[in-house]
Amino acid sequence: MGTDNEKFLRNEFLTMSIFGALGRSNTYSKTASETSRNLFRNALREKLREIANKYNSPITEEGHLSNVVDISNNLSSEFPDCLRNGRFRIGIAQKVLNLYLKYLWCAELIPLPPHCPFDSIVIAHLPGCRDLNWTSIDSTEDYLRLVRAAENVAQSRTLSEWELKVWGEPSPVVVRKPGTVVKGIDVEKSSGFEKYASKFHDQLKVTMIPYKNNVLKTAEIKNIIESVPTFKGEDQWIYPSDHCINHTNKGACYCAMTKNALFFQIARGQYRVLSWEQK
User: Is the pTM of this model over 0.70?
Assistant: First the structure.
């Protein structure tokens, strides 16, 4: 591959990896300015460029884990005021590095990476790990717990090959009903944001009936919600991601990641309205 072509691809891969890891991860502190965020992203970009050179030949898992920790600690030390709780968490560091390596590997610019990117889509395929949120992980123990679970599921396949296949598949549907225990929580007795989000489920389902199988942007869904009189005063708290079959948030509706979900996330800010009778 020509030098200019490779330089272009690597730059694009860096941009996509940083966007993919930071886009929904609540990385920054509430007081972080746009200037400090730009400085952080530029430093992260340079750190990834530096570390990626170590992957021109096969690297051990120990070496790879050391690189993840190095990114986390280095950026945390340099930008404590920019980051939530002063930390660039392990879970986000692994996502950005593993995603960048995935792009490079798929473009045949490096050998097979030792691990794969771990996010909500991948974790949904890992029994026993669905209590972990990749954006909150900040220990190597929790990260390696994901790795070992993935190795068990992948069996004879490498993690990179396995993840490349499952990432494009629908996430497993986890049926959650009132009275059942999910992640150690009795759904019927739970409270707080999850119960609050769930109170909108039935009315939102009725509201979206005319739009079944349509692909809508978040802004379009919000406009539909705002037009419903019964949602007046509450519409600012209703998000499609809280009622999604392949994505979820902390405090999402009970329907999230189940067959009762109302939306399927196509891309960031874009959802298909599900035809739930057919699921």
Answer: no
